Amino acid sequence: MRGSWRRGRRTVRDAKVLITGAASGIGRATAQAAGAAGAELVLTDIDAAGLDATVADIRGSGGVVLVAEAFDITDYDAVTAFAEKVHTAHGSLDVVMNVAGTSAWGTVENLEHKHWRRMVEVNLMGPIHVIENFVPPMVRAGKGGALVNVSSAAGLLALPWHAAYSAGKYGIRGVSEVLRFDLDQHDISVHLVVPGAVDTPLVHTVELVGVDRESPKIQRAIKSFTRHAVAPEHVAAAILRGMARNRFLIYTSFDIRFGYWWARKFALPYEIVMRQASARFTRLLASQRN
């Protein structure tokens, strides 16, 4: 890597950086921030039009986009073909950021098999496809680097209605925990981003299984959620700052940092609060049936 990427303080300047989910939300904001910081970007998303808009914005601001291509990261063959194209043209990368994700919430009696499968395919297998194709070349290159995986508060805490979503987010957390130590010997740092509420298009389109999204109670709950949400740009800044400081867990808001600390230190009160929260959500669901 031409940038500063040995042990200690790390920067994306002059680094070749892959970012998935770059068409919108956290991915787009992170691509913009990394581009402004001097990274050479490799971008992808399933949304071709949104990806084109991100590329145009970055290049219009003087940033460098080496490659941008739209495809579905759940398609292993598509990821492999893209990786071959990138490596042939530009060699191994320096930073890999798994940002792309999707969400569906619901209780176990309402979730269907398609919801469970989609959450695992996009939020766990998609990042694994990227890791399989891009991290081994980084290891072989011997230049160090970084792997960034975006999990969620739902990868740390037992949030109500999040079982399917947490299946993927806890999974990528486990992958990251292991790779954190496995890749350390190659000077490849691993960072796990655990956002809470973030004001992205995903918040407004998340599938609420078995719930009338337009009901007044649900709309009030959504508005309450978005009032506490941080901007994607805030998350992007936290990611770059956390990488520079070589933090494994990268928090984007104090409430999640405190909540995870509290859950580990006070197990019984945590269980009581989670049971109460789950019961409250169950009552909210029951109100939709009356």
Could you describe the 3D structure shown?
The protein is of the alpha/beta class. It has a single domain (16-289), classed as Rossmann fold. The protein is built from 10 helices and 9 strands. The strands form 2 sheets. Strands 3-2-1-4-6-7-9 form a 7-stranded parallel sheet, sandwiched between helices. Strands 5-8 form a two-stranded parallel ribbon. Helix 5 (163-182) links the parallel strand 6 (145-150) and strand 7. Helix 1 crosses helix 8 (232-244).
Low-pLDDT sequence parts: none
Say what the CATH topology is. Rossmann fold
Number of helices: 10
Largest sheet: 7 strands, parallel
Percentage of helical residues? 40-55%
Provide the domain count: 1
In percent terms, what proportion of residues is strand? 5-15%
Rounded Rg:
19 Å
Q: Based on helices, strands and strand pairing, what is the structural class? A: alpha/beta
Q: Going across the major beta sheet, what is the strand order?
A: 3-2-1-4-6-7-9
Termini separation: 61 Å
